[in-house]
Amino acid sequence: MDYRFYGWKTADIKDSKGLTPRDYYDLLSGIWCADTCAPRMRDEWSPDNKTWGQCSITAFLMQDIYGGIVRGVPLSDGNFHCFNDVDGCVFDLTSEQFGDKKLNYENCPEQLREKHFAKEEKKQRYEMLKERLAEKV
To answer: CA 96 to CA 99: how far, in whole Å?
Structure first.
């Protein structure tokens, strides 16, 4: 099966259950929803673009599972688009929200959980996604 997220071809790392990022993408595809989308982006969320507004909570959840670093692609609005770097295995489960736009994943700064989760709503969305994923695995 072909996936559309960045790094899908080389995302072969496995967790303690033997699951790869592709497996988690499949599971999360049934979980991502308007409630887990960033509030400022919720009006544009749709089932056709499930990954919209889901990047940081997804990347930190993958960090819980695989370790590594959450990095951020700088965006023109001053925000960062989060993705995972696990010992050189770089993948971005939510990259397809950008359509055909190619992001530059080189030399991106580390994103800190403490800074992102200083926003209580983001921490709550992360907890919701984590809980719903736990029900599936």
So the answer is: 5
